[in-house]
């Protein structure tokens, strides 16, 4: 398995790319929310599927998850997973509706659109930075939104990849808003699951062999 050869140097490169993507995403989110946003990628690591579930709070933890496929020179799957209470707080501020709640059953169109837009901005910024660095063509599909238990959301996307890969790249994401207390800031995870041949394509293009 190619993933077994991934070193801390590879992960440092991905973290650097993540921070460049985060800076682009922060600019877009600042425009969207009309306030200063600071965004960082504090950590990038390589984990197994079981560890990925634990990082997201365990398979039965309810989260707002965005799933998309990556196409082009690199193929794979990508998830953005956010604890549901954090997603609620963020979307309430975004749509100016204090009563919005992902867990009331019926998700309003405006709330779903806002969450998908957040997913679009974050995944688009990260993949665009990865594409700039590698000079590979990388295109995200339109993200699908789901509010469910972590196990259910991730199983949906893993059907295609679990038989060919055992590892996931985890990109921690911290979004800090002006005038919002630190404990209310958004702390989510990106789970990047390149198809096996794409691991090699990414690192070859980065010159890290």
TrEMBL record:
Superkingdom of the source species: Bacteria
Keywords linked to the UniProt accession: Chemotaxis, Hydrolase
Pfam family, one: CheC
GO BP terms in the entry: chemotaxis
GO molecular function terms attached to this record: hydrolase activity
Record domain CheC-like protein: where: 9-45, 111-146
TM helices/strands, residue ranges: none
InterPro entries, A to Z: CheC (IPR007597), CheC-like_sf (IPR028976), CheZ_family_phosphatases (IPR050992)
Keyword Iron listed: no
Name under which the protein is recorded: Chemotaxis protein CheC
């Amino acid at each position: 398995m190619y993933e077994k050869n991934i070193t801390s140097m590879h992960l440092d490169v991905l973290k650097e790319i993540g921070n460049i993507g985060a800076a682009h995403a922060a600019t877009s989110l600042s425009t969207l929310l009309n306030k200063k946003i600071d965004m960082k990628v504090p950590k990038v690591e390589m984990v197994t599927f079981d560890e990925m579930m634990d990082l997201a709070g365990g398979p039965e933890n309810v989260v707002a998850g965005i799933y998309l496929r990556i196409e082009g020179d690199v193929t794979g799957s990508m998830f953005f997973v956010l604890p549901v209470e954090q997603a609620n707080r963020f979307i309430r501020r975004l749509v100016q509706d204090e009563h919005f709640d992902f867990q009331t059953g019926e998700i309003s169109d405006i709330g779903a659109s806002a969450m998908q837009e957040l997913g679009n901005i974050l995944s688009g910024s990260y993949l665009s930075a990865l594409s700039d660095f590698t000079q590979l063509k990388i295109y995200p599909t339109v993200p699908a939104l789901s509010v469910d238990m972590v196990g259910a959301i991730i199983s949906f996307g893993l059907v295609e990849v679990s038989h060919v890969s055992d590892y996931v790249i985890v990109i921690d994401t911290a979004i800090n808003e002006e005038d919002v207390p630190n404990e209310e800031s958004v702390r989510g995870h990106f789970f990047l699951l390149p198809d096996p041949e794409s691991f090699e394509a990414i690192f070859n293009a980065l010159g890290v062999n």
